[in-house]
Amino acid sequence: MTSARVSQRIGSIAESATLAVDAKAKALKAAGRPVIGFGAGEPDFPTPDYIVEAAVAAARQPRFHRYSPAGGLPELKEAIAAKTKRDSGYEAAASQVLVTNGGKQAVYNTFATLLDPGDEVLLPTPYWTTYPEAIRLAGGVPVEVFAGPEQGYLVTVDQLEAALTERTKILLFVSPSNPTGAVYSPEQTREIGQWAASKGLWVVTDEIYEHLTYDGMPFTSIATATPELGDKVVILNGVAKTYAMTGWRVGWMIGPADVIKAATNLQSHATSNVANISQMAALAAVSGPLDAVQEMKAAFDRRRRTMVKMLSEIDGVNCPTPQGAFYVYPDVRDVLGKEIAGVRPATSAELAALILDKAEVAIVPGEAFGPSGFVRLSYALGDDDLAEGVGRIQELLGTAK
Known about the structure:
By secondary structure, the chain is α/β, with parallel strands linked by helices. The protein is built from 14 helices and twelve strands.
């Protein structure tokens, strides 16, 4: 009997849908097609100068040309602990910080360290495309808990309770959310945190969009809002979104010292230290001012309003106004099945393919984040491209019969 060339574990992983859409858009653009991409969650701003200068200075220092501790430069770990206290109100020692190669490694390290085979993770849905894959890779079982636009894409304690089993070990909590832009209020956050604490669950909270909330909605860290969780909480974060540093690849996890030590052991074999130059850039970012993010946030807010207004003008598209991150997540179920440019898309994947083909606009279908019937568009791109791209979608879907 011939064995498969690729292991079952790795062969079962789906590629990142968001990166796949972005790569396809860039390839079509390189081939001369005027494609506008709403796929990647990536600020269109350059990394602030003072951060770049810190990296240049670090590159000239021979000590950064060598291996450094697998868990992160001590000065960066100290600065991350201080930044977390400043922004989240959460007290952590440097020994509770692990610096990772981007936020994705923090996600994987956390699940690999906490999960045994068969352990279940409550996964509020729509979810970021990487979460279920990282959970499965770690031997866990993602349990989807779906909240639709009717409830603002926010799960309730009753829904979580209904999904709870004796195998449940972790609740994943993400606010502001990718892909929906939904933000839990302080009261909702506390209620969910207290429920998780009462059930003895771990809470893994991804706070990478903490600085991007709108309309006066505050960011609330579930770790701070719910002291009852004790040491059964892990915070995931990074510099990518706040400081326009997606390509620098610096994230981190904060948790109990024993979990961080175990995750550091894992990372010492997987990748060892994050590139020192990137770590020094991240040090400048987290210990510097938040002026740059305020400028970006003002632009994102403007684009958010434009995109919601334009998408809401399309017959059959229901576009809730997001209160965080830089995505909209319209409900397109009423568009499916209608004839558009001679085609009747039955799923949001088919609709996204049609929009790319006919309107030359790249969006990510809901299948990447949970059920079909939705699409995600990032508004982290220039105002002109945004208006042009959504205008093309308006034009195409305006012909739906």
